[in-house]
Each structure stands twice: as structure tokens, then as C-alpha cells.
Amino acid sequence: MSTRTINGVTLALLKGNIVEVQADAIVNAANSGLRGGGGVDGAIHRAGGPTIMEECRKIGGCPTGSAVATSAGKLQARYIFHAVGPIYSGTGEDAQLLASAYQSCLDLAEHHRVQSIAFPSLSTGVYGYPLDEAAPIALRTIIQHIQKPTSLQQVTVVLFGDEAFQAFENALEI
Ligand code: ADP
Q1: Is the predicted pLDDT of residue 123 greater than 80, yes or no?
Q2: Crossing angle, helix 162-173 and helix 131-146, to 10 degrees?
Q3: Beta bridge partners of residue 156, listed in sequence order
Q4: Ligand 1: centre distance to CA 60 (Å)
């Protein structure tokens, strides 16, 4: 684990499984149909039970670069924020959409007065975003947000495996 404090807010990088992390809001790496999938999405729906998917079905979908909130079912969290990152295309749009997906979750956190939030590394699994490109975008968006007045006290980025953890550690040092 690696932590730093910015404007009184703790930013932590943690190696592990996001469903085992204690936070008011857990961010899901969702798809735009909110239909469920593998990776983080599969893990959250398995651990949280069917009520999360029922809420997703009612919402119906979410555009790329945005996020929607549901309750967290059997998970300890108050909310799941389902964020839709871009499918990596190698064009200039990727970075803006990835930053926007993180920012949408941070905006939901303020709206719901959330004190702690856990993010996975959005878009870097099935969606193919290279970790070394995604990590600085994720951290820059989070750090710029917590430099302003916020309800957040703790932001944790949960990295699944050494490669992801190292990419975020490297980006944090810049
Ligand atoms: P996307 O479709 O947005 O790429 P994925 O769920 O496929 O989403 O992967 C996003 C990132 O989350 C990848 O780096 C993947 O290794 C990681 N990941 C997969 N399962 C978990 C989990 N249970 N907890 C935290 N991170 C996970």
C-alpha cells in the first residue's frame, strides 16, 4: 500500500480485490448497457447479489465517460458508482473520456456526500487501455478534484496485481 495526503484527503494505492475494500462508494468498471460482464463488474455483481443488477436494468444504460449510482446490495458500501470508461481506440478521445469517467464518480461522491470511495483502474482490462497511459490520467483527475473543497476524506485506487500497482506507483511519483 502507498499513501499520500492532499489537502487533508488520503489518497491510497492498494493492491487487492475491490469487493474486499471498505468504502462508502465502490466504483464499478461497467459497460454502457449496464448489463454486467467479467473483471470488476463480474466480481461486484457476484459479491453484491442480484439487487444491483435489478437497479441497473431499471436505469437502462450509461454513456461512455459518465457514471450512475445504485445501492450496493450485500456489499458493505452505501453505493456502487457504475462508471463507463472508453474502449481504447488509440485516438485523442480516449484520455478525455477516461478522465470524464473518473470525474463523474467524483461528482457523484460530492452529490451523495460520500466520505470514502474506492476506484478500480477503469478501462485497463477488457477495454484495453494501456496501464502506463491510464494511470496518470486517473491520478491527475483524482488529485485535481481533492485539491478543491470536498466531502471526501479517503480515495483508494484498488489495483489488481503487480503490474497495475506498479503503473500507478510510477504515475504518483511524477
Ligand atoms: P474494463 O472493461 O473497464 O477494462 P475490467 O473489469 O476488465 O474493466 O478491468 C479493469 C481493471 O480492473 C483491470 O486492470 C483489471 O485487472 C482490474 N480488476 C479485475 N478484477 C478486479 C477486482 N476484483 N478488483 C480490482 N480490480 C480488478
Answers
A1: yes
A2: 50
A3: 12, 118
A4: 22
